[in-house]
Amino acid sequence: MIDVNALIGGYPFRYVPHPDPDVLVHVLERERLSGAWVGHLPSAFYRDPSAGNAQLYTALASYAPTLRPVPTIRPDWPQWEGALEAAQRAGAPAVRVYPMHWGMGPHDERLLGFARACGDARMALQLTVRFEDLRQRHPLDSAGDLTAAAVRALARAGEQVRVVVTAAGREMIEEVHWGLTPIEQRRVVWDISWIWGPPEDHLAKLFRTIGPERFVYGTHWPLRLTQTPRANLALLPNDMGSPVLADPERLFA
Amino acid sequence: MSPEPQAAPLAGPAPLIDAHAHFLHPLGGRADWEAVNAARLRAGERIGIWYHVASILGSWGFSSPVYFPSPADVSAGNDAMLALADAHPERIRAYVTVNPNHTAHAVDEIGRCVARGAVGVKLAASRRASDPLLDPVCEAAARHGLPILHHIWQHRTREWPSQEISDGLDLATLARRHPTVWFILAHIGGGGDYMHTFPAIAEVPNIVADLSGSGVDRGMLDEAILRLGAERLIWGSDVTMETGLAKLMGFEAIRLTPEAIARIRAGTALRIFPPGSFPRVERESNARASVAR
User: Fold this and answer.
1) Which residue of B has its CA nearest to A27?
2) Considering only CB atoms, which chain A residues are within 8 Å of B155?
3) Residue B94 and residue B85 in contact, taking contact as beta carbons nearer than 8 Å
4) What is the dihedral of CA B76, B82, B85, B89, to 10 degrees?
5) Among residues A20, A127, A35, which one has the least CA distance to residue B218?
6) B47 — contact with chain A (CB < 8 Å)?
C-alpha cells in the first residue's frame, strides 16, 4: 500500500514535528506502507515553487524508490513546460497544484491545459482540499478550501487527465462524483485521510455507493496522525470484508 | 483489514472510557438514528470501549437548535439518553444536558436525571462559560458530585453562527469560581486552536481536557501531555471514533508510558466521575491494586 498524501518541510502557520524524509521512512515502516508520494509543503506557499522542487528532488534522492517526488508546478508561471519535463525525468508520478492559493478559478484555461499536459505525460494531477480544519486557520491563511467545481472541471478537461484529490470529506466527494459521467468519474480517485468513520460511517457509505476502487490510501503526514486511515479501515462494518483500494501506480493502466 | 468479530480490541484489553460520546433518538428527525447508535456500539466493541459516557443535545436541531435546545427538547433528549443507559447498563452512562438560559429548568433537570442515574452534566454552547448564569448549574453539579463536560471552541477569535462559543479562558473563569467541581474541556481536536487552550487552562487544576474531535494534528497530543500532563487528560471520541482510535495508536508512537496511557484511558474518568459510575473498571482497578499489594 502506498501513501499518496505525504509531504516534507515546514508549515507556515504552526509547528510541525520533524517533517523530514528519514522520519517519514520510519513512519511508513511502522504503518506497514510500501512507499509514499511526497510533496514539498512550503512550496504550496511559494510564489515560485521552482526552488522548492529542487529541494524536494535532492531531499528524496537517497530514499528512492520508497519516496517518490510530487513537485508543485504553477500553470500560470512562465516555462511550466520545462518544470513538467523535469518532473517527468525525476520519475514523479504526479504533480501538485493549488488553484485556491494561486487565485485560479475552476474554469481557468491555463489550469485545464496544464491538466491535459500532465495527462499526456502520464502524470496525475494532485489536488489538496485543505491543509487544516477551517476552524483553526491563521488569519493570513485565507485561500479557502478547494471547490468541488474545480475538481469537476479538471475531470472533464480531457480523456488522459487523472486527478488525485486529497483531504476531501464525504459531502465534496459525493458532489463531484455524482456530477460527473461514468467515464469522467473514472479519472478521479480520492484519498481517505479526511473521511469520517463511525458512528456516521461516511467511509463505509462511500465504499458502498461509489466503490472502494475510487479511493486511495493517504495519511496527510506530517500534518495529521498517520494512524487515522488505518484506524478508519479497521473500523469498517464487518459485512464490508476487506475492501481493495485503487493502486495509485496504475492510474494510467 | 477488518478483523473478525471475535478479534481482540483494536485499542487493547485495558479499561477504556469514552468520556465524550453522543447518541441519537427518534425525535431528532433522522431516519437512520438507530443505525448510527448501533454503529457507535459496534465500533466501541471493536475499539475496546468499556463505557460510553454520552449525551443527547435536545432534538439535534430538529425542533430547536442543537446548541440552544428548548426546555422541552432538553428533557426529551435526556429521557432518551437515560433510556439508552437503562437498556445498556453494562456499557452506557448518561450526561444530563441542560440549557442554562432556562435556569430553573436546568437545575431541576439535573436533580431529575441524577435520580435516574445520570453521572455528569453536559453544557453545550447556549451561554458563554464565564457568564454568572452558569453558577446555579455548577452549584447543582457540586451538590451531586458531578463533573461538567463543556463544549469548547479552542480559541474563539470571533462569534460563530449557531452557538455561543466559549474557549479555554472562558471555562477557566468559570472553573475558578467553582473549585470543587471538575470540568471537562471538550474536544481539543474539535475545532479551533488547541495551542491556545493548553496555557489557558494550565493553572486551573479542576479542568481536564478531553482528546476527542475529528482533528488529529501531529504534535497536538505531545503538546497536551507536555503542557497539562496525562493526569489532566481524558479520552473521548465525540462524533469521529476513528480519530479517537488513531490517538490511542498515537500514544504508542510517541512512547507515552503505560501509566500515563492508563490515566488517559480510564484513570482520569475514575477520579472525576461519581464513585460507582464504572463498576467493571473499578473492579479491574481494585483487582490490580490487590495484586500489587
Assistant:
1) B253
2) 136
3) yes
4) -150
5) A20
6) yes
Decide if pLDDT at B2 tops 70: no
Contact at 8 Å (CB) between B167 and B152?
yes
Q: Do B2 and A231 touch (CB under 8 A)?
A: no
pLDDT at B6: 60
CATH class, domain B17-292, is alpha beta
How far apart (Å, rounded) are the C-alpha atoms in residues B97 and B167?
19
The grid coordinates of residue B273 equal: 466521575
- A235 and B239 within 8 Å at the Cβ level: the answer is no
> What is d(CA B138, CA B171) in angstroms, rounded to the nearest whole number?
12
Which stretches of chain A score pLDDT less than 50? none
CB pairs under 8 A between A and B: 117
At residue B22, φ and ψ (nearest 5 deg) are: -140, 150
Which residues on A lie below 8 Å from B40 (Cβ)? 198-199
Q: Rounded to whole angstroms, how far apart are CA atoms B77 and A177?
A: 36
Residues of B whose CB is below 8 A from A217: none
Asked if B153's CB is within 8 angstroms of A235's CB, the reply is no
Mean pLDDT confidence for B117-132: 98
Mutate which of A15, A170, A228, A244 to test chain B, going by most B C-beta atoms within 10 A? A228
Number of domains in chain A: 1
Q: Using a cut of 0.80, tell me whether the model's pTM lies above it.
A: yes
Chain B partners within 8 Å of A228 (Cβ): 216, 242-243, 246
pLDDT exceeds cutoff 50 at B1: no
Residues of A in contact with B188 (CB under 8 A): none
Q: How many CB atoms lie within 10 A of CB A140?
A: 8
ipTM of the complex: 0.97
- Do A126 and A164 meet the contact criterion of CB atoms below 8 Å apart? yes
With beta carbons less than 8 A apart as the criterion, state whether A130 and A167 touch: yes
What was the pLDDT predicted at B285? Answer: 83
Chain B residues touching A15 at Cβ < 8 A: 219
Q: Looking at the complex, report in whole angstroms how far the Cα of residue B209 sits from the nearest Cα belonging to chain A.
A: 18
Sheet containing strand A124-128, edge to edge, reads A94-97, A124-128, A163-166, A188-191, A215-216
Q: Where are the domains of chain B?
A: 17-292
User: Cβ A198–B1 below 8 Å, yes or no?
Assistant: no
Q: Which residue from A239, A244, A237 is spatially nearest to A198, judged by alpha carbons?
A: A237
By three-state DSSP, how is residue B261 classified?
A: helix
Three-state SS for A135?
helix
Answer whether A222 touches B (CB < 8 Å). yes
> Residue A237 sits in a domain of what CATH number?
3.20.20.140
- Whether the Cβ atoms of residue A231 and residue B245 lie closer than 8 Å to each other: yes
